[in-house]
Specification:
This protein has 322 residues and is an alpha/beta fold. The protein has 2 domains: 214 residues, P-loop containing nucleotide triphosphate hydrolases (Rossmann fold), CATH 3.40.50.300; 84 residues, Hypothetical Protein Yjia, Chain: A,domain 2 (2-Layer Sandwich). It is built from 9 helices and 13 strands. It has an 8-stranded parallel beta sheet, sandwiched between helices. It is globular, with a radius of gyration of 20 Å.
Protein backbone atom coordinates (compact mmCIF):
# COMPACT_ATOMS: atom_id res chain seq x y z
CA UNK A 1 0.00 0.00 0.00
CA UNK A 2 1.49 3.33 -1.08
CA UNK A 3 1.95 5.96 1.58
CA UNK A 4 0.64 9.48 1.09
CA UNK A 5 3.65 11.84 1.27
CA UNK A 6 3.78 13.68 4.59
CA UNK A 7 4.28 17.46 4.70
CA UNK A 8 7.91 18.50 4.96
CA UNK A 9 9.03 21.87 6.34
CA UNK A 10 12.49 23.42 5.99
CA UNK A 11 13.64 25.79 8.71
CA UNK A 12 16.71 27.73 7.63
CA UNK A 13 18.38 31.10 8.00
CA UNK A 14 21.17 33.07 9.60
CA UNK A 15 23.53 31.71 12.22
CA UNK A 16 22.23 32.71 15.65
CA UNK A 17 18.92 34.06 14.34
CA UNK A 18 16.80 31.91 16.69
CA UNK A 19 15.90 28.89 14.55
CA UNK A 20 15.85 26.44 17.45
CA UNK A 21 13.60 28.76 19.48
CA UNK A 22 11.13 28.83 16.59
CA UNK A 23 11.44 25.08 16.14
CA UNK A 24 10.39 24.53 19.74
CA UNK A 25 7.31 26.73 19.22
CA UNK A 26 6.33 24.71 16.15
CA UNK A 27 6.84 21.42 17.99
CA UNK A 28 4.64 22.61 20.85
CA UNK A 29 1.91 23.47 18.34
CA UNK A 30 2.06 20.12 16.54
CA UNK A 31 2.16 18.15 19.79
CA UNK A 32 -0.90 20.02 21.09
CA UNK A 33 -2.73 18.98 17.92
CA UNK A 34 -1.78 15.32 18.22
CA UNK A 35 0.70 15.26 15.37
CA UNK A 36 3.57 12.77 15.31
CA UNK A 37 6.39 15.12 14.40
CA UNK A 38 9.68 13.84 13.07
CA UNK A 39 12.61 16.24 13.36
CA UNK A 40 15.82 16.21 11.37
CA UNK A 41 18.53 18.27 13.04
CA UNK A 42 21.51 19.34 10.92
CA UNK A 43 24.36 20.86 12.89
CA UNK A 44 27.80 21.71 11.58
CA UNK A 45 29.59 20.08 14.52
CA UNK A 46 30.11 16.38 15.10
CA UNK A 47 27.80 16.38 18.15
CA UNK A 48 24.19 17.58 18.20
CA UNK A 49 23.58 20.32 20.76
CA UNK A 50 19.95 21.19 19.95
CA UNK A 51 18.66 17.68 19.24
CA UNK A 52 18.02 16.74 22.89
CA UNK A 53 15.87 19.87 23.38
CA UNK A 54 13.70 19.02 20.37
CA UNK A 55 13.38 15.46 21.64
CA UNK A 56 11.29 16.65 24.58
CA UNK A 57 8.45 17.60 22.19
CA UNK A 58 8.94 15.62 18.97
CA UNK A 59 7.93 12.02 18.38
CA UNK A 60 11.40 11.29 17.03
CA UNK A 61 14.58 13.30 16.41
CA UNK A 62 17.28 12.25 13.97
CA UNK A 63 20.61 14.04 14.03
CA UNK A 64 22.48 14.71 10.81
CA UNK A 65 25.55 16.06 12.56
CA UNK A 66 29.04 16.48 11.18
CA UNK A 67 28.34 18.41 7.99
CA UNK A 68 25.95 20.53 6.00
CA UNK A 69 22.86 18.66 4.88
CA UNK A 70 23.25 20.25 1.45
CA UNK A 71 26.50 18.43 0.76
CA UNK A 72 28.12 16.04 3.25
CA UNK A 73 24.90 14.44 4.52
CA UNK A 74 22.58 14.75 1.52
CA UNK A 75 22.09 10.98 1.32
CA UNK A 76 21.57 10.88 5.09
CA UNK A 77 18.65 13.29 4.65
CA UNK A 78 16.80 10.89 2.33
CA UNK A 79 17.59 8.00 4.64
CA UNK A 80 16.40 9.98 7.68
CA UNK A 81 13.11 10.88 6.01
CA UNK A 82 12.51 7.21 5.19
CA UNK A 83 13.25 6.17 8.77
CA UNK A 84 10.93 8.77 10.28
CA UNK A 85 8.01 8.01 7.98
CA UNK A 86 8.27 4.23 7.69
CA UNK A 87 9.67 3.21 11.06
CA UNK A 88 8.36 5.91 13.39
CA UNK A 89 5.08 6.82 11.69
CA UNK A 90 5.78 10.56 11.54
CA UNK A 91 2.93 12.49 9.92
CA UNK A 92 4.78 15.81 9.69
CA UNK A 93 8.51 16.41 9.20
CA UNK A 94 10.71 19.42 9.81
CA UNK A 95 14.39 19.90 9.08
CA UNK A 96 16.34 22.53 10.98
CA UNK A 97 19.28 23.38 8.71
CA UNK A 98 22.60 24.45 10.10
CA UNK A 99 23.45 28.08 9.46
CA UNK A 100 25.91 26.84 6.83
CA UNK A 101 23.51 24.69 4.79
CA UNK A 102 22.27 25.93 1.40
CA UNK A 103 18.45 25.51 1.41
CA UNK A 104 18.38 25.37 -2.40
CA UNK A 105 20.37 22.14 -2.22
CA UNK A 106 18.03 20.81 0.46
CA UNK A 107 15.03 21.52 -1.78
CA UNK A 108 16.78 19.64 -4.57
CA UNK A 109 17.35 16.64 -2.29
CA UNK A 110 13.79 16.55 -0.94
CA UNK A 111 12.30 16.66 -4.45
CA UNK A 112 14.27 13.60 -5.54
CA UNK A 113 11.87 11.17 -7.26
CA UNK A 114 12.24 8.57 -4.52
CA UNK A 115 12.27 10.88 -1.50
CA UNK A 116 9.17 12.66 -2.85
CA UNK A 117 7.21 9.43 -2.44
CA UNK A 118 7.52 9.86 1.32
CA UNK A 119 7.71 13.63 1.87
CA UNK A 120 6.14 16.58 0.08
CA UNK A 121 7.80 19.97 0.37
CA UNK A 122 5.24 22.12 2.17
CA UNK A 123 7.05 25.32 3.08
CA UNK A 124 10.46 26.92 3.46
CA UNK A 125 10.68 29.08 6.59
CA UNK A 126 13.67 31.42 6.89
CA UNK A 127 14.56 33.09 10.19
CA UNK A 128 16.81 36.12 9.83
CA UNK A 129 18.27 38.95 11.81
CA UNK A 130 20.27 42.01 10.75
CA UNK A 131 23.60 40.66 9.53
CA UNK A 132 26.95 41.78 10.89
CA UNK A 133 29.31 43.31 8.35
CA UNK A 134 31.89 40.81 9.62
CA UNK A 135 29.83 37.81 8.53
CA UNK A 136 31.86 35.25 6.58
CA UNK A 137 31.40 34.83 2.84
CA UNK A 138 30.01 31.29 3.25
CA UNK A 139 27.40 32.18 5.85
CA UNK A 140 26.49 35.34 3.94
CA UNK A 141 25.85 33.27 0.80
CA UNK A 142 23.68 30.80 2.72
CA UNK A 143 21.65 33.64 4.24
CA UNK A 144 21.06 35.06 0.75
CA UNK A 145 19.91 31.64 -0.45
CA UNK A 146 17.57 31.30 2.52
CA UNK A 147 15.99 34.66 1.71
CA UNK A 148 15.57 33.75 -1.96
CA UNK A 149 14.01 30.32 -1.34
CA UNK A 150 11.71 31.20 1.56
CA UNK A 151 7.93 31.07 1.59
CA UNK A 152 7.95 32.68 5.04
CA UNK A 153 10.53 35.34 5.97
CA UNK A 154 10.73 35.95 9.70
CA UNK A 155 12.83 38.95 10.72
CA UNK A 156 13.77 38.31 14.33
CA UNK A 157 15.42 40.30 17.16
CA UNK A 158 13.63 43.51 16.26
CA UNK A 159 13.92 44.64 19.87
CA UNK A 160 17.71 44.89 19.57
CA UNK A 161 17.83 47.39 16.70
CA UNK A 162 17.07 51.06 16.30
CA UNK A 163 14.21 51.87 13.88
CA UNK A 164 16.32 53.34 11.09
CA UNK A 165 18.59 50.31 10.83
CA UNK A 166 15.65 47.91 11.02
CA UNK A 167 13.75 49.54 8.15
CA UNK A 168 16.85 49.41 5.97
CA UNK A 169 17.30 45.72 6.79
CA UNK A 170 13.64 44.97 6.03
CA UNK A 171 13.71 46.84 2.69
CA UNK A 172 16.75 44.85 1.59
CA UNK A 173 15.01 41.57 2.38
CA UNK A 174 11.86 42.50 0.46
CA UNK A 175 13.93 43.44 -2.58
CA UNK A 176 15.49 39.97 -2.65
CA UNK A 177 12.23 38.03 -2.31
CA UNK A 178 8.95 39.63 -3.41
CA UNK A 179 7.00 36.35 -3.10
CA UNK A 180 7.22 35.41 0.58
CA UNK A 181 5.17 36.65 3.51
CA UNK A 182 7.21 38.72 5.91
CA UNK A 183 6.96 38.66 9.71
CA UNK A 184 8.68 40.92 12.25
CA UNK A 185 9.35 39.39 15.66
CA UNK A 186 11.39 39.46 18.83
CA UNK A 187 12.44 36.19 20.50
CA UNK A 188 10.77 34.37 17.56
CA UNK A 189 7.37 35.07 19.14
CA UNK A 190 4.56 34.42 16.70
CA UNK A 191 1.44 32.31 16.51
CA UNK A 192 2.43 28.94 15.03
CA UNK A 193 -1.11 28.41 13.74
CA UNK A 194 -0.89 31.64 11.77
CA UNK A 195 2.51 30.73 10.37
CA UNK A 196 1.35 27.28 9.26
CA UNK A 197 -2.06 28.37 7.95
CA UNK A 198 -2.72 27.71 4.24
CA UNK A 199 -1.90 30.56 1.91
CA UNK A 200 -4.42 32.10 -0.47
CA UNK A 201 -3.26 31.29 -3.99
CA UNK A 202 -4.10 34.63 -5.55
CA UNK A 203 -1.26 36.69 -6.93
CA UNK A 204 -0.22 39.68 -4.90
CA UNK A 205 -0.49 43.06 -6.60
CA UNK A 206 0.82 45.33 -3.82
CA UNK A 207 4.58 46.03 -3.84
CA UNK A 208 4.99 44.44 -0.40
CA UNK A 209 3.10 41.95 1.71
CA UNK A 210 4.47 42.75 5.14
CA UNK A 211 2.69 41.46 8.21
CA UNK A 212 3.14 43.80 11.16
CA UNK A 213 2.35 43.10 14.77
CA UNK A 214 -0.77 40.95 15.07
CA UNK A 215 -1.98 41.26 11.49
CA UNK A 216 -3.59 38.07 10.23
CA UNK A 217 -2.11 36.07 7.32
CA UNK A 218 -5.48 36.12 5.54
CA UNK A 219 -5.09 39.84 4.94
CA UNK A 220 -2.10 39.31 2.70
CA UNK A 221 -2.32 38.03 -0.85
CA UNK A 222 0.17 35.35 -1.76
CA UNK A 223 2.09 34.62 -4.92
CA UNK A 224 0.81 31.61 -6.84
CA UNK A 225 4.31 30.20 -7.07
CA UNK A 226 4.15 27.93 -4.05
CA UNK A 227 6.05 25.92 -3.26
CA UNK A 228 9.26 26.78 -5.09
CA UNK A 229 9.26 23.26 -6.54
CA UNK A 230 6.50 22.18 -8.94
CA UNK A 231 6.01 18.52 -9.89
CA UNK A 232 4.39 17.78 -13.24
CA UNK A 233 3.18 14.22 -13.83
CA UNK A 234 3.56 12.96 -17.38
CA UNK A 235 0.62 10.88 -18.69
CA UNK A 236 2.60 9.14 -21.43
CA UNK A 237 5.79 9.00 -23.52
CA UNK A 238 7.12 12.28 -24.89
CA UNK A 239 7.81 13.35 -28.44
CA UNK A 240 11.58 13.76 -28.60
CA UNK A 241 11.65 16.68 -31.02
CA UNK A 242 8.92 18.62 -29.23
CA UNK A 243 10.64 18.03 -25.88
CA UNK A 244 14.01 19.25 -27.19
CA UNK A 245 12.27 22.37 -28.50
CA UNK A 246 10.58 22.86 -25.11
CA UNK A 247 13.95 22.83 -23.33
CA UNK A 248 15.06 25.80 -25.42
CA UNK A 249 12.21 27.90 -24.00
CA UNK A 250 13.40 27.72 -20.37
CA UNK A 251 13.21 31.14 -18.70
CA UNK A 252 16.20 32.38 -16.73
CA UNK A 253 14.13 32.17 -13.52
CA UNK A 254 13.96 28.37 -13.86
CA UNK A 255 16.99 27.27 -11.89
CA UNK A 256 16.58 23.51 -11.87
CA UNK A 257 14.60 20.80 -13.65
CA UNK A 258 14.84 17.04 -13.32
CA UNK A 259 12.83 13.89 -13.79
CA UNK A 260 12.25 10.55 -15.53
CA UNK A 261 10.23 9.66 -18.62
CA UNK A 262 10.29 7.75 -21.91
CA UNK A 263 10.25 8.98 -25.46
CA UNK A 264 7.68 7.58 -27.87
CA UNK A 265 8.91 4.55 -29.85
CA UNK A 266 12.00 4.29 -27.59
CA UNK A 267 12.10 1.61 -24.87
CA UNK A 268 14.75 3.16 -22.61
CA UNK A 269 13.88 5.07 -19.46
CA UNK A 270 15.38 8.57 -19.66
CA UNK A 271 16.76 10.72 -16.84
CA UNK A 272 16.57 14.47 -17.39
CA UNK A 273 18.77 16.98 -15.55
CA UNK A 274 19.05 20.73 -15.92
CA UNK A 275 20.69 23.33 -13.69
CA UNK A 276 21.82 26.89 -14.28
CA UNK A 277 24.09 27.82 -15.91
CA UNK A 278 24.78 24.42 -17.46
CA UNK A 279 23.18 22.57 -20.32
CA UNK A 280 20.35 20.06 -20.06
CA UNK A 281 21.25 16.37 -20.21
CA UNK A 282 19.09 13.40 -21.21
CA UNK A 283 20.56 10.04 -20.25
CA UNK A 284 19.12 6.55 -20.82
CA UNK A 285 19.32 4.28 -17.77
CA UNK A 286 17.89 1.16 -16.16
CA UNK A 287 16.30 1.18 -12.70
CA UNK A 288 14.89 -1.81 -10.85
CA UNK A 289 12.39 0.43 -9.08
CA UNK A 290 11.18 2.95 -11.62
CA UNK A 291 9.56 6.18 -10.40
CA UNK A 292 6.39 7.53 -11.96
CA UNK A 293 7.09 9.63 -15.09
CA UNK A 294 7.33 13.26 -13.97
CA UNK A 295 9.43 16.39 -14.09
CA UNK A 296 10.20 18.68 -11.17
CA UNK A 297 10.69 22.40 -11.89
CA UNK A 298 12.46 24.55 -9.29
CA UNK A 299 12.46 28.33 -9.41
CA UNK A 300 10.31 31.41 -8.94
CA UNK A 301 9.09 34.36 -10.93
CA UNK A 302 8.28 32.58 -14.19
CA UNK A 303 4.99 31.52 -15.77
CA UNK A 304 4.57 28.07 -14.24
CA UNK A 305 1.23 27.41 -15.96
CA UNK A 306 2.60 28.18 -19.40
CA UNK A 307 5.70 26.02 -18.95
CA UNK A 308 3.54 23.16 -17.65
CA UNK A 309 1.13 23.43 -20.59
CA UNK A 310 3.99 23.51 -23.08
CA UNK A 311 5.58 20.45 -21.44
CA UNK A 312 2.33 18.47 -21.55
CA UNK A 313 2.01 19.39 -25.21
CA UNK A 314 5.15 17.32 -25.84
CA UNK A 315 3.32 14.13 -24.76
CA UNK A 316 2.77 11.76 -27.69
CA UNK A 317 -0.90 11.66 -28.67
CA UNK A 318 -2.12 13.25 -25.41
CA UNK A 319 -5.62 12.33 -24.35
CA UNK A 320 -8.18 15.03 -25.27
CA UNK A 321 -9.13 17.34 -22.44
CA UNK A 322 -12.58 16.58 -21.06
Amino acid sequence: MALTPVPFYILCGSLGAGKTTLLMRLLEHWKAHGRRTGVLMNEAGSVSIDGPRAGTLAEQVMNLAGGCVCCDTKEDLSWGIAQLVRDHGSDVLILECSGLADPAEVIDAVTDAYTARLASLERVIALLHPISTEESHSSGYVTTQAIRCADELILNKRDLYVPGHWEQFRAGILEQNPYARLWETSHARLDAADLLAPHPLTKRTAPTNVLLGKSRPGLSQRSAYHPIATTISLPGPLNRQRFLAWIKTFPKELERAKGYFRFGQEPELQEFQYALPGQATITPLMLLDEPEPALVLIGRGYDVDRLRADLLATVENPAPLG
